[in-house]
């Protein structure tokens, strides 16, 4: 009995596709590394503008340290008429 298989790729083709994907990912990682190095250099060039320890640059002025108090609301059961 012969079995016909269609729509499959050979192992060599799969390896070639994987090698291409790995090469693309490697280039992307290298580009991101360069971007990170550039940003770090920019930060190092501005030492007087560094965030002081204890300052939170993400926190906004309107933010509060504590969560607002939760009001206790008591529900009274009303009998159904």
TrEMBL record:
Coiled-coil segments: 8-42
Keyword list (alphabetical) reads:
Coiled coil
Sequence ranges of Acidic residues compositional bias:
63-74
In this chain, the stretch annotated as Disordered covers 45-81
Q: Where is the composition biased (Basic and acidic residues)?
A: 45-62
- What protein is this chain from? Uncharacterized protein
